[in-house]
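We modelled the chain as a single entity of 97 amino acids. Its sequence is:
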Amino acid sequence: MIKPGIVFTKDWVVDFVLDLAGYTPELDLASSCIIEPSCGNGSFLRSIVFRLCASAKSRGCLAADALAGCVHAYDLDAASVAQSRVLVRSLLMQQGL
């Protein structure tokens, strides 16, 4: 059951917002920090991790220590935070981190 007030963001909206914000893999994303103030089930985090890893790979610096601190995500719902942690950990493992 979805809790009241929880809205899941569609992938195309996530991509549009990140593009609009200039968070694109063509840039050196490892030299910046992005904050996700309401991570929910990880819709934004999924794209953020993919873009961050693509950016780092293209610069030859795909390493956990180089990417530490590049993303900060929060949520009021502890279950959402736990779900997002699992998602991010899985995505990073897929990237070899």
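As a brief sanity check on the tokenised model: The chain has four helices and two strands. Helices lie at 11-20, 43-58, 64-67, 78-94.
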